[in-house]
Amino acid sequence: MAQLVTSGQLPQAIVCANDEIAVGVLAYLWTNGNKTPDDVSVAGIGGTRGGACSD
């Protein structure tokens, strides 16, 4: 993300292998002044871990 942001040429979208990575990408973008989805769209695939409850 650092290389993409400092290059000044963000892609239109970033697809992440899971939602945890997508959250990290969003946080990095937001803290560096980028807006989603205005500047770049971010998607996570597969959900997050630990979402199910067991009896």
Layout of secondary structure:
Blueprint: H1 2-7, E1 13-16, H2 19-31, E2 41-44
Parallel strand pairs: 1-2
Q: What would the keywords be for this entry?
A:
55 residues, single chain, two-stranded parallel ribbon, alpha+beta, elongated, 2 helices
Query: What low-confidence regions span 5 or more consecutive residues with pLDDT below 50?
Result: none
Mean pLDDT, rounded to whole units?
86
Spatial arrangement of strands, main beta sheet: 1-2
Structural class: alpha+beta
Largest β sheet strand count, sense and barrel closure: 2 strands, parallel
N-to-C order of helices and strands: HEHE
Counted beta strands:
2
| Relative helix content | 25-40%
Residue share in β-strands: 5-15%
What's the total helix number? 2
Computed over alpha carbons, the radius of gyration is 13 Å
Which geometry do the CA atoms define? elongated
End-to-end C-alpha gap = 40 Å
Short characterization:
The chain is of the alpha+beta class and 55 residues long. It has helices spanning 2-7, 19-31, and strands spanning 13-16, 41-44.
